[in-house]
Amino acid sequence: NMHVAVHARAHQLDAPTRTFAADVLDGLSRPQKSLSPKYFYDDAGSELFVEITKLPEYYPTRTELGILRDRAGEIAALIPPNAAIVEFGAGATTKIRLLLAAHAVAAYVPVDISGDFITAQAEALRGDFPDLAIHPVAADFTEPFALPEAVRDLPKVGFFPGSTLGNFEPQDAARFLNSARDILGDGARLIIGVDLEKDERLVVPAYDDAAGVTAKFNLNVLQRINRELGGDVDLSAFTHRAIYNRDLHRIEMHLVSLRDQSVRILGEDIGFRAGETIHTENSYKYSLARFRALARQTGWTLQQSWTDADGLFSVHALEA
Ligand code: AVI
């Protein structure tokens, strides 16, 4: 996009911000305006997400932690001796600590786009698990990346909790599972958390909480556009909406324009009609059968699945 290039130069944007700029202008020029959910996670957005995970309405984190805690012994029994655990999109270390406490492994490889964050988390982990070799990798885990030399000959166990898989479009979820198999190699295991389809009366509040934290999290992407791209978006002219799309098995988040308006981003005027939305996220919910079919199609064999007593969330052990 010529326009973006000219304005990006004029505003002296660095490479990641130029990509953000191009994605924003592309997403907002479509008939259904959209922004990628990966742009939620700047510092403010990452903090808001941590707040979300503690909300009474947001059942996934709490429920998955309960499964990992109750089943740590069974899960650990599937981890081969002397293994390296590779965590895709490593954030807080709460979940991995449950596995590490239940089973000694040789190495831990947290992979995340934000190098600073995982370096800090790795330091804290080092203090508590002095015998564990920690090899952080700063990479976009949705793209192929190389594992550190030091773990190349160890048996690999991938760890992908949080139902982050649900934020991928179905074809991208399949692409990720295929690529994780390539990265981890023959005989690898994958321990993955997957949110389950359930009554809309439970799902919608999880994405539209009474305290308005999720609304803030959603609106923060507009703040980010203003700050990083010099946009003039009036945040009070947009509102948060969560919609359960039963046919497509997903909860959608949108930002709804409250009036006819025009915003200016990097020299481009973008018009909104009152009620028009920016689609900012899908969070897919799987049935056990649909997730198992996806795993099978992408070359994985299901070893075991665990759910909580209410069937809200699932954790699966797969074998390559
Ligand atoms: C990170 N991801 C699994 C969250 C989810 O539930 O889809 C992101 C989120 N969006 C709104 N609330 C939480």
UniProtKB/TrEMBL annotation:
Q: Where is the Histidine-specific methyltransferase SAM-dependent domain?
A: 20-319
Q: Which UniProt keywords apply?
A: Methyltransferase, Transferase
Q: Does the record bear Methyltransferase in its keywords? A: yes
Under the heading InterPro entries, the entry gives: EgtD (IPR035094), EgtD_Methyltrsf_superfamily (IPR051128), MeTrfase_dom (IPR019257), MeTrfase_EgtD-like (IPR017804), SAM-dependent_MTases_sf (IPR029063)
Any single GO molecular-function term of the entry would be: methyltransferase activity
Say if the entry is tagged with keyword Methyltransferase.
Answer: yes
Q: What is the superkingdom listed in this entry's lineage?
A: Bacteria
**Pfam families xrefs:** Methyltransf_33
Q: Which residues cross the membrane?
A: none
* One of the protein's GO biological processes: methylation
- UniProt-recorded name of the protein: Histidine-specific methyltransferase SAM-dependent domain-containing protein
Q: Which source organism does the UniProt entry give?
A: Rhodopseudomonas palustris (strain HaA2)
What is the organism lineage in this UniProt record? Bacteria, Pseudomonadati, Pseudomonadota, Alphaproteobacteria, Hyphomicrobiales
